[in-house]
Every structure is written in structure tokens, then in C-alpha cells.
Amino acid sequence: MIDCRSIAKGKGKGELIVSSEPISFLGGVNPENGEIIDPNHELKGQIIKDKVLFIPGGKGSTVGSYVIFQMMKNNTAPKAIICLDAEPIIATGAIMSDIPMVDSPADTKDLTDGTLVEVDGDNGTIELL
After folding, report:
1. Minimal CB count within 10 Å: which of 2, 45, 57, 92?
2. Residues 6+ apart with CB under 8 A from 107
């Protein structure tokens, strides 16, 4: 169990998709299918739908919160979000979209691509499954 700070309530389970780069949801993610479309991003071409997204944080326009909300409406959003340091854009998007979110994980060494995890936004924990 990895202790974190709770940002958005709920539980989400899935396979991790990990990026060392922040993501801008506005212009960087296609809300129609959950694909990373930013041509300069290391995850370009990958799908975050139904995954647990682990990123340092977000960047870009505050409209990114609404892109996350649109993804939830389209059923293309991640199952949960983990940030090293949450900022208001992603946090607001996760909260209004009921996507479980935590930040500041106490230990990140086991949070690697493809690892199955459950994020518990109610208790602020990540469980490796």
C-alpha cells in the first residue's frame, strides 16, 4: 500500500500508463477516443481510456478540466489519475468527472507501465494488485 494525498474521491482500478512529462488535456488528448495526440509528448499515440494515468502533473489551459469532463461523458477517461504534484486544472477535471485522483505518492518505484493498481481517492492510497 502506497500512501498519498487524496484529491478526488472514489476508487479506480486498472493498468498503469506512466509519463515523465506533464500532459495538457486541451489539444494534447483526443476526448473522442482517449488518445494522446500531442506530437511532442512521449505517450503520443497511446490510449489512456480505462487506464490509470500516472503523470507529474498537468499543464496548459484551464479548459483542460472540461476536456477531462468531456472524456468522462464519452467514456474515454482514465479509471483514475495519480500525480506527483496535482495542480488545479487536472484536480478540477477529476473532481467534476468523478475520477478518483491522488497525488504525492510516498513511494513511486513500483509504479511502472503495465502494473495493475487500485487508486483509492477516499483513503489516499494506491494498492499494487
Report:
1. 45
2. 2
Active-site residue, selected from the candidate residues 6, 19, 61, 65: 61
The angle, 0 to 180 degrees and rounded to 10, between the axes of the packed helices 88-96 and 64-74 is 30
Answer whether 83's CB lies under 8 Å from 103's CB.
Answer: yes
Share in percent of the chain as helix, strand, coil (round to 5): 20, 30, 50
Beta bridge partners of 3: 125
Q: What angle do CA 49, 105, 7 make, to 5 degrees?
A: 65
Annotation marks residue 61 as catalytic: yes
pTM: 0.96
pLDDT in tens, the chain (129 residues): 999 999 999 999 999 999 999 999 999 999 999 999 999 999 999 999 999 999 998 888 888 899 999 999 999 999 999 999 999 999 999 999 999 999 999 999 999 999 999 999 999 999 999
| Rounded distance between C-alpha atoms, residue 30 and residue 122, angstroms | 28
